[in-house]
Design goal:
single chain; mainly alpha; Rossmann fold; three-stranded parallel beta sheet; two-stranded antiparallel ribbon; 8 helices; hydrolase activity, acting on carbon-nitrogen (but not peptide) bonds, in linear amides; Creatininase-like_sf; metal-binding; Creatininase/forma_Hydrolase
Length: 232
């Protein structure tokens, strides 16, 4: 799209999507898992509705993985400042119903920012949508396997894998997540090893595609509404 396309899109429909991801270790999977999934689920959800999806914000909050090469983490205040500016930019472009599609649990402070921005502007509605643990999507994943966690089978989709780095065979013992959260990055790396939190590294693609289809459908439902009526 060029700027005139965006101007026309906002004139006919006040909705847009801002995807949010992270660039961080995901064991043998791509560093960009969270960014890939957030953007892809947003695009597939929005396409039938003709709603614009802006490029994914690829960096988020991942300080606990800072000892892993390739992990790029922002300060909390930096990420909040970026999203404050992005929402303001979308508003200036004419969008009043803004869906933030998030692919990384560490980014949840942006959800609180969304509430703050609505008090500040008053003429926008901002939804913060964690696509992978929205109720229906999470329920499908839990019905398949209750062990879905960071960098294990739950994030192992055909489009997050690397051809040169196949998943290990078997199952990894689960780590103590409470202990991990109390550790500085070097100790986190020592505890996690490859980076997975535990359980299976990969499940059949049939299972993953069921989760994905529900995630797209539920993201589309969040985009579709209901949205509140807004003052001019």
């Amino acid at each position: 799209m060029n700027w005139r396309d965006v101007e026309a899109a906002a004139a006919r429909d006040p909705r847009c999507i801002l995807p949010l991801g992270s660039t961080e270790q995901h064991a043998q999977l791509s560093l960009c898992v969270d960014a890939i999934l957030a953007e892809r689920v947003a695009v597939e959800a929005a396409e039938p509705l003709g709603v614009p999806v802006f490029p994914v914000m690829p960096f988020g909050l991942a300080p606990y993985f800072a000892a892993y090469p390739g992990t790029m983490t922002l300060r909390v205040e930096t990420l909040l400042a970026v999203f404050r500016d992005l929402v303001a930019s979308a508003r200036r472009s004419g969008f009043r119903r803004i869906l933030i599609v998030n692919g990384h649990g560490g980014n949840n402070p942006v959800g609180a920012l969304a509430q703050e921005l609505m008090t500040e502007y008053g003429d926008i509605s901002v939804k913060f949508h964690n696509w992978w643990n929205a109720p229906k999507t999470w329920a499908v994943g839990q019905s398949i396997d209750k062990t879905g966690l960071h960098a294990n089978w739950m994030e192992n989709f055909p489009w997050t894998r690397l051809d040169h780095a196949p998943a290990p065979e078997g199952e990894k013992p689960m780590v103590d997540l409470g202990l991990m959260k109390a550790m500085p990055p070097a100790e986190v790396k020592e505890l996690l090893g490859d980076g997975s939190f535990g359980a299976l590294w990969q499940r059949p693609d049939e299972d993953m595609l069921k989760i994905w289809a529900t995630g797209v459908e539920e993201t589309r439902a969040a985009l579709d509404g209901p949205w509140p009526e807004l003052r001019p």
